[in-house]
Amino acid sequence: MPQEERNTATEDLPPDGLPESARDAAEATPDAGEATPEQDTVASEGTGPEAATGPEAATGSEAATSPEAATDPEAAGSEAATSPEAATDPDPHSAARPTPGWRDRHPAAARTLAWTTTALAAALVLVTLLLPNDPARLTPAEFVRIPVEGIVGAALLLVLPQTVRRVAAALAGVVLALLAVLDVLDIGFIGALGRGFNVVFDWPLLGDGASFLQDSIGRAGALGVEIAAVVLVLALLVLTALAVVRLSNLMARHRATAAGTTLVLGTAWVLSAALGLQIAGAPVASRSTSDLVQARMDGVSATLKDERAFAKEAATDPYHSTPRSQLLTGLRGKDVIFTFIESYGRSAVQDPLMAPGVDAVLAKGTKRLRAAGYSARSGWLTSATYGGSSWLGHSTFLSGLWIDNQQRYRTVTAGDHLTLTKAFQRTGAWRTVGIMPGVTKGWPEASWYGLDHVYDSRELGYKGPKFSWSTMPDQYSLSAFQRLEHGRPHDKPLMSEIILTSSHNPWAPLPKTLPWNKVGDGSVYHSIEQAGKNPVDVWQQTDRVRTEYGKSIQYSLNSLISYVEKYGNKNTVLVFLGDHQPVAKVSGDHASRDVPVALVAHDPDVLKRISNWHWTPSLNPGHQAPVWRMDTFRDRFLKAYGPHPDSTVSPAAR
After folding, report:
1. Can you give the pTM of this predicted structure?
2. 121 shares a domain with 87
């Protein structure tokens, strides 16, 4: 028989390798009797895959029943499966039937597994298509909608040829998985920082997150989480690609049914969109994936445009040419301290759970400072960041520019825009120093901030344990500041920038306030840290996290107020504020970005200069205090304690 005819015949064979007529004839043979071992061999050879497709395969009913079928390659009847000659056929090309697999032995289980796998594949694809990027929208209603992207994708896969279809399906699965990963990053960033993930400049923040995780749960725990995250991402990429390929193969095998289903779903989507149908507030006709893709593309374009616009803004500074002799004249001779308290936000002062303890510290602190001869004024600033990225808040406050992303931070720190701290340095009337316990390696931004010297975590002489992320307790940082700078004689007054970190997430374990003469080199904190709470235990309950956060703010405020009481003098001027609100788990999903800011001074003339600010005469701003954007503080401060900016003065006169 010609090769083409043999192939055509075998393609039409049923799964057992015999034509329908051959099986009927074999089953109808009256003298079949009990099968002998030789006949079992014949049956195996006659029904295996090789028998169905090999060059000696039977092609007709006579070959299965006639004696010649065993030796005549053109025979095509059912006798080939039953004749004695078939049992002794010396043909070397015949093959034994393979051992039946578990699918053959358990067909019902195989069918169940196949349908379960298909159902899981469909569920995975549906979830990736409908997954929202906002934690507030993570509700069951979001996942019972009709995704238009799935309908369009199914229609496209139905018309593609087999090879192209499989490649397209695999690529579509990978893209869906990547979009799902970005959605998860959005959810995490919104929960932690109050904003979505920026695909242009937020990738380095993942490294910062890993460092924070290590500080919170230890190196081994953090490594385990990181490995699990990588494995999950890779698994999602592979499984989603396989899921789309499986579904496309199923549609190809049942093309008519798939086409009809796609048409029905498409019609339902159009009607739902036209009628505005919703399920629990979520539109039935979904196009969330395409909307999110468009939003990300728009975000990239807006980011690049913003970068160019901000570079021009940062290059323009009304105080750039102000002579140094006219800067900060109202503070000459004063020791000025700018202190940032980590995560000290409006929630700490006004939330029903946390505010009672914090407000009590502020009220008592106001009285304590007044008894020591100090007065205070306080208000609100709206931070450029939320939940984290403290350096964005610091740079916004000190530069007078709105720095709400990493690219803006890089741009401004690479230029020469005048910071508030650098204004003190420019006058030549102050020694400028920084106390930065959160800095653990080289920090090139110090020159941009205008700091003559920076004491990072390696230079503060601390011999005690870390408290989760915080490298040392706030009271120790202030004690080191007193020992290294403030308590030493200088030929100039000090301008200091101090970062207090004990109120940094995860707020466990927490240090305790000690007598100042007991702080020493920090070794005393070992027993305190060991007796503290485990951050993993604290974070299991929201109320417990919020309670510990409130305690951390109380500790930081008490440390700072106590320091001014003990080591302040008539020339001390203190400005302290929060850098941002705590994460949403503490502050709530819709919290403002406001942080308290206070100015404390012994000299009444210092506070008289800001009387038109209408700040509250207390450390606690209260509900009625003015609210300013954080980037407006620099110019207000320079104006209050010096002349108005004069951009007409030449650089040579500086």
Report:
1. 0.72
2. no
